[in-house]
Amino acid sequence: MKPLYAELCMIAEPILQHYVEDLEVHDKNALHSTVKPGETWLWQVRPTGTWLLRWDKDSQADSKDSLLEILIRQTMKGNWADSQWHLIRCREFRNGQPYGTVSDSIAVADLAAKLPRPKLQAS
Asked: Which pTM was predicted?
Protein backbone atom coordinates (compact mmCIF):
# COMPACT_ATOMS: atom_id res chain seq x y z
CA MET A 1 0.00 0.00 0.00
CA LYS A 2 1.43 3.34 -1.08
CA PRO A 3 0.51 7.04 -0.83
CA LEU A 4 -2.25 7.53 -3.40
CA TYR A 5 -1.10 10.89 -4.71
CA ALA A 6 2.39 9.54 -5.46
CA GLU A 7 0.81 6.66 -7.38
CA LEU A 8 -1.34 9.02 -9.46
CA CYS A 9 1.68 11.19 -10.27
CA MET A 10 3.65 8.17 -11.54
CA ILE A 11 0.78 7.13 -13.81
CA ALA A 12 0.02 10.66 -15.05
CA GLU A 13 3.61 11.75 -15.75
CA PRO A 14 3.95 10.11 -19.19
CA ILE A 15 0.36 10.99 -20.22
CA LEU A 16 -0.65 14.40 -18.86
CA GLN A 17 0.41 17.31 -21.10
CA HIS A 18 -2.12 20.09 -20.42
CA TYR A 19 -4.27 21.13 -17.45
CA VAL A 20 -1.69 19.71 -15.06
CA GLU A 21 -3.49 21.58 -12.28
CA ASP A 22 -6.24 18.95 -12.53
CA LEU A 23 -3.76 16.55 -10.93
CA GLU A 24 -1.59 18.90 -8.90
CA VAL A 25 -4.41 20.98 -7.41
CA HIS A 26 -7.84 19.37 -7.79
CA ASP A 27 -7.01 15.66 -7.47
CA LYS A 28 -4.50 16.29 -4.68
CA ASN A 29 -7.05 18.39 -2.77
CA ALA A 30 -9.78 15.78 -3.22
CA LEU A 31 -7.51 12.99 -2.02
CA HIS A 32 -6.69 14.91 1.14
CA SER A 33 -10.08 16.48 1.91
CA THR A 34 -12.87 14.50 0.25
CA VAL A 35 -11.77 10.86 -0.17
CA LYS A 36 -12.38 8.71 2.90
CA PRO A 37 -11.06 5.27 3.89
CA GLY A 38 -13.23 2.51 2.48
CA GLU A 39 -14.31 4.50 -0.58
CA THR A 40 -13.59 3.68 -4.21
CA TRP A 41 -13.04 6.43 -6.76
CA LEU A 42 -12.69 6.34 -10.54
CA TRP A 43 -9.83 8.33 -12.03
CA GLN A 44 -9.46 9.23 -15.68
CA VAL A 45 -6.13 10.56 -16.95
CA ARG A 46 -5.62 11.83 -20.49
CA PRO A 47 -3.24 14.27 -22.19
CA THR A 48 -5.70 17.12 -21.52
CA GLY A 49 -6.37 16.61 -17.81
CA THR A 50 -7.90 14.28 -15.26
CA TRP A 51 -11.22 13.49 -13.62
CA LEU A 52 -11.59 12.01 -10.13
CA LEU A 53 -15.12 10.80 -9.40
CA ARG A 54 -16.71 8.65 -6.72
CA TRP A 55 -17.21 5.15 -8.13
CA ASP A 56 -18.88 3.17 -5.36
CA LYS A 57 -21.75 5.66 -4.93
CA ASP A 58 -23.30 8.14 -7.34
CA SER A 59 -25.96 10.60 -6.17
CA GLN A 60 -27.06 11.06 -9.80
CA ALA A 61 -26.92 7.38 -10.84
CA ASP A 62 -28.97 6.37 -13.87
CA SER A 63 -29.79 9.96 -14.80
CA LYS A 64 -28.62 12.43 -17.40
CA ASP A 65 -26.99 14.37 -14.55
CA SER A 66 -24.46 11.69 -13.59
CA LEU A 67 -21.07 13.11 -14.57
CA LEU A 68 -19.48 9.71 -14.05
CA GLU A 69 -21.87 8.07 -16.51
CA ILE A 70 -21.54 10.94 -19.01
CA LEU A 71 -17.74 10.63 -19.06
CA ILE A 72 -17.80 6.86 -19.49
CA ARG A 73 -20.46 6.95 -22.22
CA GLN A 74 -18.71 9.78 -24.08
CA THR A 75 -15.47 7.81 -24.00
CA MET A 76 -17.35 4.82 -25.41
CA LYS A 77 -18.44 7.09 -28.28
CA GLY A 78 -14.82 7.95 -29.10
CA ASN A 79 -14.16 11.06 -27.02
CA TRP A 80 -10.96 10.85 -24.98
CA ALA A 81 -9.90 7.66 -26.75
CA ASP A 82 -6.40 8.32 -25.43
CA SER A 83 -7.50 8.21 -21.78
CA GLN A 84 -6.74 5.67 -19.09
CA TRP A 85 -9.14 4.70 -16.31
CA HIS A 86 -8.15 3.48 -12.85
CA LEU A 87 -10.00 2.55 -9.68
CA ILE A 88 -8.57 4.09 -6.53
CA ARG A 89 -9.28 2.45 -3.20
CA CYS A 90 -8.47 4.48 -0.12
CA ARG A 91 -7.56 2.16 2.76
CA GLU A 92 -6.32 4.54 5.45
CA PHE A 93 -4.72 7.88 6.29
CA ARG A 94 -1.23 8.09 7.77
CA ASN A 95 0.19 11.47 8.80
CA GLY A 96 -2.54 13.18 6.77
CA GLN A 97 -1.73 11.20 3.62
CA PRO A 98 -4.27 8.86 1.99
CA TYR A 99 -2.90 5.37 1.38
CA GLY A 100 -4.44 2.66 -0.73
CA THR A 101 -4.30 1.00 -4.10
CA VAL A 102 -4.60 2.15 -7.70
CA SER A 103 -5.70 -0.45 -10.23
CA ASP A 104 -4.04 -1.13 -13.53
CA SER A 105 -5.72 0.59 -16.48
CA ILE A 106 -9.31 -0.60 -16.94
CA ALA A 107 -11.05 -0.83 -20.32
CA VAL A 108 -13.85 1.71 -20.56
CA ALA A 109 -16.18 -1.01 -21.90
CA ASP A 110 -15.71 -2.88 -18.60
CA LEU A 111 -16.68 0.27 -16.69
CA ALA A 112 -19.70 0.90 -18.93
CA ALA A 113 -20.93 -2.64 -18.25
CA LYS A 114 -21.14 -1.76 -14.54
CA LEU A 115 -23.37 1.31 -14.98
CA PRO A 116 -25.42 2.67 -13.33
CA ARG A 117 -23.59 2.88 -10.03
CA PRO A 118 -25.46 2.68 -6.72
CA LYS A 119 -27.11 5.87 -5.54
CA LEU A 120 -26.03 7.49 -2.31
CA GLN A 121 -28.39 6.69 0.54
CA ALA A 122 -29.86 9.58 2.53
CA SER A 123 -28.48 9.68 6.06
From this structure: 0.90
